[in-house]
Design goal:
globular; 4-stranded antiparallel beta sheet; 36% strand; 84 residues; alpha+beta
């Protein structure tokens, strides 16, 4: 599995409804966060290695009513803090 992050800009007043709908209907969604700034939401999605990122974003994320714009970040490596 590989992670992608999608920043989502929503129609005015729709961010929480959009976040809830994505959480309820998109199986690949791991986390959805409300954010401040230019975008309203930040979603973390896990895709299969051969899954087309562009097609996923267009068909699953951008098709949710209330989504105005998206910005997708593809990840390469994950790092975490030391435990101990």
């Amino acid at each position: 599995m590989r992670a992608i992050f999608v920043m989502v800009k929503c129609e005015m007043g729709q961010a929480y409804r959009v976040a809830r709908e994505m959480a309820d209907t998109i199986a690949e969604l791991s986390e959805m966060h409300s954010t401040s700034g230019q975008y309203d939401l930040l979603g973390k999605f896990y895709l299969e290695p051969d899954q087309d990122i562009g097609l996923f974003v267009v068909e699953k994320v951008q098709s949710v009513p209330g989504v105005k714009d998206t910005y997708t970040l593809q990840t390469f490596n994950a790092f975490s803090g030391g435990r101990g």
